[in-house]
Structure formats: structure tokens, C-alpha cells
Amino acid sequence: MKLEQELIDCIRNAIDAANAAKITNIIFEKGFIRGIDDSKKVIIFQDHDVPSMPFTALGINRMDRFVSRFNLVYGQPNFSVEATVAERDDTVSQLTFKCSGTKVDYRCANPRAVLAPKVMNDVMKYSAIITPDTVQFLNRGEAAMKMEFVTFISNDSGVSFEIIDKSNGDVLSHTFGIPARNIEGEKDNMFAVRYPMKVILSLFKRILEGVFYVGKKGMLKVTINGIDLYVLPQV
């Protein structure tokens, strides 16, 4: 069956977002897009603005192969994507990318083999602003300090990040914005949550300017290409 352009764009955008988070397996199913990286530090979980799908589920792995084969024909005359659907369970077993005079197959993953959370167990409570200057300073901070984590802190003085050098305990702190906004309308705007630095930097480099959210349980949410990603807090 031939896929609608809206669904093709959604798949492409989700895979691009997954690559930014180093998520290597994702599943598309009716109303949801789900995935998690191998180290279980970042999640794709989309339960809104998901186009209708003429199948039960589609599993994607081998992201590099998908992207290279898709890009062979994307944007060429008469570009299209066709899905081969298994009769036994209505899941996609293969995608075929086509354009004039060319077609290339991509074997899909078994959706049952894609391990990803089925529910989101956090609710976003705070929003804060990220700017290109903040991302640049965070990048420079990573180069200056030997660390694995970054802690985001919000209080009445503003939003800041803190990096601790794991070799000697030296601290780099930088205030980069006004206090976070409590999106539930409450007065509380205080949090302090630690996240994996490389994951945060990779995602922030993609959004550069915009908003990130912090949940009641500490998950940090960003949106890339209209796809929601959640970074898990670290202890």
C-alpha cells in the first residue's frame, strides 16, 4: 500500500529526532510513537498529532540504513513510499522507497521486539527558556570540565545549570534565564534535577532556542521536529 505524505513526513521527522537522541529502535502504532535508547536515558513518547496509519504497527531499527536508503530517492520525481503489510497481524514487514526509475527496499523490525515504555509516567510541571547563548556556553562548559552530568536548577533568582568536575569537585555554575514558569499555575517554581550531559547537549543543539519542560518526577522534555523526547533524571 502507498503511504500518505503526512505519514511519510511523520516517520522521517521521528527518525531524525531519534537520531539526535541516539535512539536506535522506534515503533509507530495507532496514536503513538515510542522508543528508548539502549542506555535507558532518553525516551521518544508521542501521543498527539500522530497521523492515522493504515496498519497496526511499524517497527524501525538500523536507523542509518533507513536514512541512507530513504535519502537516495527522497525529493526525486514521483517519490513515494509503499508498505508491505503482513496479513497475520497487520504489521509492516517492509517499506519500499520509490522514484522514477528507482526503488529500494528496507526490511522493518518486528514491532514486538521494539522495547519502549507504553505509558508516560510523568506530568510536565515547569517550563524554562533555552537560548543559543546558553547552548554555546553549555558546550564550552563540557569542554572545560570533566563530568558526566549537568544539573538544572530553578529558584527565585532564575534558571541555572551546574556542572561538577568529577576528578576534583570543581564547580561551574551559570544562570541563563528568568525563573521557570509553573505551567499548573501554582507559585512553586523551584527544582533541581540532574541529567546526562551528552544527551542534554545533543538535544539542546538541535532546538537551540525555545522551551524545555521539567516534570513532577524530574523528566526533562524537549520537542524536535514536532516529536516529544524525554530525558530521564539521574541520581
Could you name the key traits of this structure?
four-stranded antiparallel beta sheet, 235 residues, 4 helices, nine-stranded antiparallel beta sheet, alpha+beta, 2 domains, DNA Polymerase III, Chain A, domain 2, 22% helix
The spatial strand order of the largest sheet comes to 4-1-2-3-16-15-14-8-12
Oligomer state equals: single chain
Give the helix/strand class.
alpha+beta
**How much of the polypeptide forms β-strand, as a percent range?**
35-45%
Stated plainly, the CATH topology of the largest domain is called DNA Polymerase III, Chain A, domain 2
The percentage helix is 10-25%
- Number of DSSP strand runs: 16
Q: List the domain count as a whole number.
A: 2
> In terms of per-residue confidence, which ranges show pLDDT below 50 for 5 or more consecutive residues?
none
Provide the residue-averaged pLDDT: 95
Main sheet attributes: strand count, strand direction, barrel closure: 9 strands, antiparallel
The CATH class name of the largest domain reads: Alpha Beta
Instruction: Characterize the overall form.
Output: elongated
Distance between the termini: 47 Å
Helix/strand order, N-terminal first? HEEEEHEEEEHEEEEEHEEE
Q: What Rg, in angstroms, do the CA atoms define?
A: 20 Å
The helix tally amounts to 4
CATH architecture field of the largest domain: Roll
Can you offer a commentary on this structure?
The chain is of the alpha+beta class and 235 residues long. It folds into two domains: 5-113, DNA Polymerase III, Chain A, domain 2 (Roll); 124-231, DNA Polymerase III, Chain A, domain 2 (Roll). Helices cover 22% and strands 38% of the residues. The strands form three sheets. The protein has a nine-stranded antiparallel sheet with strand order 4-1-2-3-16-15-14-8-12. Strands 11-10-9-13 form a four-stranded antiparallel sheet. A hairpin with a 6-residue loop joins strand 10 (158-164) and strand 11. The longest helix is centred in the N-terminal third of the chain and has 16 residues, at 5-20. The model has no long low-confidence stretch (mean pLDDT 95).
